[in-house]
Amino acid sequence: MPILDLLEPLAHSPKRPVKPSRLFVRVGVLLALVILPAVGILSAGAVGDQSTTLYLPIIVNGEPVSPPPPPPPPGGPVVATAETDPVPSSGDAADDPAIWIHPTDPALSLVIGTDKDSGLGVYDLSGNELQFLPDGELNNVDLRYGFPLGDQPVDLVTAGDRASDTVAVYSINPQNRTLESVDSFSVGIGIYGSCMYRSPLDGRYFVFVTSEGGEVEQWQVSDNGASGIAANLVRAFDVGSQSEGCVADDETRYFYVAEEAEGIWKYGAEPGAGSVRSLVDSTGSGGHLEADVEGLAIYYASGGEGYLLASSQGSDEFVVYDRQGDNPYVMTFEIVAGNGIDQVTGTDGIEVSSAPLDPLFPQGLFVAQDTNNDDGNQNFKLVPWEIISYSVTPPLLIDTTYDPRSEEYRLPPE
Ligand code: CA
Ligand code: CA
Ligand code: CA
Ligand code: CA
Ligand code: CA
Question: From the CA of 335, which ligand is nearest?
Fold first, then answer.
């Protein structure tokens, strides 16, 4: 239908002659909207068939709005298009990001990043700091949507505080895009890393905490009936040695944790999953990682497809694995200088979202901590997902259909 809209002036030329220049523009638009997308879909199709949202034009009253960007040059360098304001603390301070997707206007989405010496920064998608919460030594941050609190669902943010071995809990006010403190709770280990999980089986919410000793605790969090959080320890296990970065897959029900000197371990994310595990990848010979293994993130695509991403601090690189099966290795990339933004080195925490965050990141967003910011304290770099996708041949999947706010479980039960 939209494409017919564009073709219409060509088909009715006798009564409404189209000026050659205008025809040229129409054909140009047609090429941009139809031919290029087709190329994108075909090439992405080599990786998977879930990429049909690539470059689909949005037509309103016969005119395309927010025309899709042409695909980046294949094999091009991965560069950031935005960076956040520096964190307040000097030295090694910025650590781990989260991405919050606004419920109605994607342009109002947020990047939340920790300053592990002093608190939590909240940034818009251009990197401007909107809020800073001087709430302690918050090292890792994560969030989940639709947490039932009081009489309404809230978007819940949690961050582990290394100073007090507590988990700080916030809700996000979508009206003014600020974080509001909800509660905090103590855990039984010395907190190093933390991440969240929402079970697709029963909708329960959990916080995982990790420690320098390699211990992991899984805490179920729920409404305590008094506008606060009830936290109950539901599982504990030992990874072996210092572990920080972690991520849970809300669809496939796996929990991945980075044992910094060793590699990435995969456990079940449900509280009854025990301590059965498998090694996804390792440092040293035979592996694609160089210690420390830091942040982990999941790129959600349809049908259980997508990627697991890892931050390989020792090599200034990011490693991509298939989200399915035994998480086979896919590719490695680095973020080089470009667009007036310095390169990313010594990278720590990461996050990725496949959601269309128009207009700046219409095909998804990757965020990485940068250890050496050229113009101030440490900060976070923002990279459009399609630049990462097209840096390899065939390109990685671009699939913007996953809605983390949806409670629909999209995978068939095993
Ligand atoms: Ca995080
Ligand atoms: Ca670390
Ligand atoms: Ca870290
Ligand atoms: Ca840098
Ligand atoms: Ca910079």
Answer: 4
Q: Are residues 35 and 171 in the same domain?
A: no
Give the C-alpha separation, 279 to 282, whole Å: 7
- Are 269 and 254 in contact, with CB atoms under 8 Å apart? yes
Distance 349 CA to ligand 3 centre (A): 5
pLDDT of residue 10: 33
226 Cα to the center of ligand 3, angstroms = 33
Q: What is the pLDDT of residue 37?
A: 39
- C-alpha of residue 344 to centroid of ligand 4, in Å: 4
- Cα angle, residue 159 at apex, residues 158 and 161 outer, rounded to 5°: 140
Say yes or no: 58 and 200 in one domain: no
* Among the bound ligands, the one closest to the CA of 248: 1
Asked if 260 and 243 touch (Cβ cutoff 8 Å), the reply is yes
Report which bound ligand comes closest to the CA of 140. Answer: 1
What pLDDT, on the 0 to 100 scale, is given for residue 58? Answer: 54
Residue 360 CA to residue 123 CA, distance in Å, equals: 14
Sites in the chain below the pLDDT cut of 70: 1-69, 409-414
Q: How far is the CA of 84 from the centre of ligand 5 (A)?
A: 8
60 and 87 inside one domain: no
Same domain, 218 and 305: yes
**Which structural domain, as residue segments, surrounds residue 49?**
2-65
Ligand with the closest atom to the CA of 337: 4
pTM of structure? 0.85
Six token digits for residue 360: 């700046």
Percentage of the chain lying above the pLDDT 70 cut: 82
Cα(379) to centroid(ligand 5), Å = 8
Q: What is the Å distance from ligand 2's center to 115 Cα? A: 13
